[in-house]
């Protein structure tokens, strides 16, 4: 704990609506999201000292303003409070206070807009904590006493699957050999897979070229987007198979509604004899739904998202449950800042929790990386552990300024060029203050 | 269909943040919501003619601004469009477009803030439809051809439990005897239960007095709030039992996380031998979760909420699934406008779907009724069918003006009297535009 810790308070919080005009690039992530503008609600916690914490949650453009507004509503729960009351032994209570705000919880609870906002704030708190200790987040977690680590997790609603005592035991049992595993990671890195060869709008020719390039560079796991049309899906699968030479999909991802636990279980049951797994999680709202996906044997791969659930504290709970149910975690990444975050979590999983990379890969999609101060080190298709203190999501001040929506210079330029409609110039279809006669009661 | 229908368009939409300072009254709905300010996001659709549609979704104060903002983001999907393209045979497509907006859906999908917003807009569309036909909503539904009725429902993600064809057959089978059942309702009304005798902060003395009063007035179903402390809960149960003389709880409500389908199933299993049912639904996010609660035998009573899920169209899907799984619907009411809405749905359930009131009661909590133009008619502990066209949620213009948050006169008075903090005067802890040096890249 650094010297000035006791005296340090969160002095202020800022939250910004940062959007990148990726819909112009025509990189369609799925048939349900044909035209995303990759975005984030970007949170900075300012303290009495130079120390700052940064956190974000990934969004697709419209709707970011809702998360930004929700963060503002949560701000009073962290601003003005000393770090000693927010972090360390108080992290669980801090987290619980954020998800159970007595009025706000009605418009959740623990899901959607308000939970994404919690994720961004909690991630900023963990970034602050790691910076305070002057270590990258994965190292903070790895070196953390198991007792302290489980004390940061709120076990409410999951004790039927995992108690605090069981979590503690799992971590304690893995203390041995930690240093060797850390050295192994520092030397060899963590295996990655690529999503960049199979975007849904790619032509057959482009898929062929991309697959050949990635294969030549050593990649062995490829993601192919499906869902537009069964016949086209089959043709595309055949095309990729012809090039990469593998026989069977490792998993199918989110094959039905992310809310349908029993539906996923039915699909997983049907696919198990074929040796094809079911993966899901990027749209899974919280630890309670992950718990049930595990209990119902509905998933063979657990795809946590670093900021859809309530930040690091809740993600740790999900990793611990996945370990107990013997399901590997392969995190969702890409978007804005997800690769930056999940590498830390997966390093911790290897060193402190599971001790294996078997059946585990981290998604890698290197778009928008240039906006982050800490560069991801993916070499020879492997993620190497970050070395800079924090959670790796601090963005360049110039990127924040340029891409703040709707008035950042990059956006103004797009309006001027006619590439995007200027929201200020839109003929607003709302009547915000309808003029009405006040009727007699 | 009225004559000027073809030409009519939705000209504009207004949405207002309406809050009532109920936290000052100390009527605590549950231990998780100790100090709610009962509120709503209130939507009005304006057309080319005098015709308007009103819809709302119930909230608890903070967070209403998020739903209001989400409604504004959805407005472009309905404003400017002719009613012929929004309603009737196009209702399913309209609903689907609202829940699958390609960027907004990421911060849901179909849950929390964005789904509450969909509920308010969809309820306003149904109100408009009923007014167009000059009938109350329950009568619109009752007289609707079964084929048209099922065409308003989006069956996506529920066909494994209920197909459109099955839904159609269930409705067609109940066509016979409809007129008799409608007459029965008009004459005898629908049984209600009261929540007003057992609020959690009531003293034993107050509970005793209230129970005796309600019992004398003919009430036979009482709700008692629990959850603060097991010993106190037991004492309060004993107290009520001594007065009303009934032996066993009919149900226990939302005994665990609203997201925990399998947890509810475990509790229901354990309680079944005791003859105590499990009820849940007021915080259940959408039809996909209700489907699983039914599939897993996790609920004995289905407590739909008229606006947490996506409005009338989605509520109908849930009623139809409940009928198939033979689970009675006892709607969540109270709040702001919920009693007004659910009475319509429950009348339709009796006349057109199940033909019975066995094990079915409508919650009745008559607070804030005075703000609505259409009065609820509860006589001798029974709801009588509304007679005025629409969905009964139109509020008095004066109420809307007075209680609009944060600048309505009723709120300004409270700030002046020192009863509520004026948000405009709060020392804002946010730094919205942090001044930062732009670092060299």
UniProtKB/TrEMBL annotation, chains A, B:
<dbReference type="InterPro" id="IPR013341">
    <property type="entry name" value="Mandelate_racemase_N_dom"/>
</dbReference>
<dbReference type="Pfam" id="PF02746">
    <property type="entry name" value="MR_MLE_N"/>
</dbReference>
<keyword id="KW-0479">Metal-binding</keyword>
<dbReference type="GO" id="GO:0000287">
    <property type="term" value="F:magnesium ion binding"/>
</dbReference>
<dbReference type="InterPro" id="IPR029065">
    <property type="entry name" value="Enolase_C-like"/>
</dbReference>
<dbReference type="InterPro" id="IPR036849">
    <property type="entry name" value="Enolase-like_C_sf"/>
</dbReference>
<feature type="domain" description="Mandelate racemase/muconate lactonizing enzyme N-terminal">
    <location>
        <begin position="41"/>
        <end position="141"/>
    </location>
</feature>
<keyword id="KW-0460">Magnesium</keyword>
<dbReference type="GO" id="GO:0016052">
    <property type="term" value="P:carbohydrate catabolic process"/>
</dbReference>
<dbReference type="InterPro" id="IPR046945">
    <property type="entry name" value="RHMD-like"/>
</dbReference>
<dbReference type="InterPro" id="IPR029017">
    <property type="entry name" value="Enolase-like_N"/>
</dbReference>
<protein>
    <submittedName>
        <fullName>Mitochondrial enolase superfamily member 1</fullName>
    </submittedName>
</protein>
<feature type="domain" description="Enolase C-terminal">
    <location>
        <begin position="248"/>
        <end position="395"/>
    </location>
</feature>
<dbReference type="Pfam" id="PF13378">
    <property type="entry name" value="MR_MLE_C"/>
</dbReference>
<dbReference type="GO" id="GO:0016836">
    <property type="term" value="F:hydro-lyase activity"/>
</dbReference>
């Amino acid at each position: 704990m650094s010297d000035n810790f006791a005296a340090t308070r969160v002095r202020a919080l800022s939250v910004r609506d940062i959007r990148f005009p990726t819909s112009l690039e025509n990189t369609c992530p799925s048939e349900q999201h044909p035209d995303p503008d990759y975005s984030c609600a970007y949170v900075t916690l300012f303290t009495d000292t130079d120390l700052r914490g940064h956190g974000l949650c990934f969004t697709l453009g419209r709707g970011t303003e809702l998360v930004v507004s929700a963060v503002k509503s949560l701000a009073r729960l962290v601003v003005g409070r000393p770090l000693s009351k927010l972090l360390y032994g108080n992290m669980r209570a801090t987290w619980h206070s954020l998800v159970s705000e007595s009025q706000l919880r009605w418009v959740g609870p623990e899901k959607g807009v308000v939970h994404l906002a919690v994720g961004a704030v909690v991630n900023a708190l963990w970034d602050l904590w790691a910076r305070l200790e002057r270590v990258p987040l994965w190292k903070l977690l790895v070196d953390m006493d198991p007792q302290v680590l489980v004390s940061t997790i709120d076990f409410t609603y999951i004790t039927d699957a995992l108690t605090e005592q069981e979590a503690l035991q799992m971590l304690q049992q893995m203390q041995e050999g930690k240093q060797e595993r850390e050295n192994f990671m520092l030397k060899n890195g963590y295996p990655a897979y690529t999503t960049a060869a199979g975007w849904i709008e790619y032509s057959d020719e482009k898929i062929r070229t991309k697959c050949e390039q990635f294969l030549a560079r050593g990649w062995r796991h490829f993601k192919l987007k499906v869902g537009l049309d069964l016949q086209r899906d089959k043709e595309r699968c055949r095309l990729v198979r012809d090039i990469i030479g593998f026989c069977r999909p490792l998993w199918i991802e989110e094959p039905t509604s992310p809310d349908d636990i029993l539906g996923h279980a039915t699909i997983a049951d049907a696919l198990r004899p074929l040796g094809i797994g079911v993966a899901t999680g990027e749209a899974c709202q919280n630890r309670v739904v992950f718990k049930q996906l595990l209990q119902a044997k509905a998933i063979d791969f657990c795809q946590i998202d670093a900021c859809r659930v309530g930040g690091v504290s809740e993600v740790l709970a999900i990793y611990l449950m996945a370990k107990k149910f013997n399901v590997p975690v392969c995190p969702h990444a890409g978007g804005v800042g997800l690769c930056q975050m999940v590498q830390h979590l997966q390093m911790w999983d290897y060193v402190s929790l599971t001790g294996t990379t078997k059946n585990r890969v981290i998604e890698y999609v290197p778009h928008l990386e240039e906006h982050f101060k800490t560069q991801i080190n993916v070499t020879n298709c492997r993620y190497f552990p970050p070395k800079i203190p924090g959670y790796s999501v601090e963005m360049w001040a110039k990127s924040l300024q340029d891409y703040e929506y709707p008035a950042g210079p990059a956006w103004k330029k797009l309006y001027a060029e006619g590439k995007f409609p200027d929201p200020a110039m839109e003929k607003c279809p709302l009547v915000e203050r309808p003029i009405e006669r006040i009727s007699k009661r």
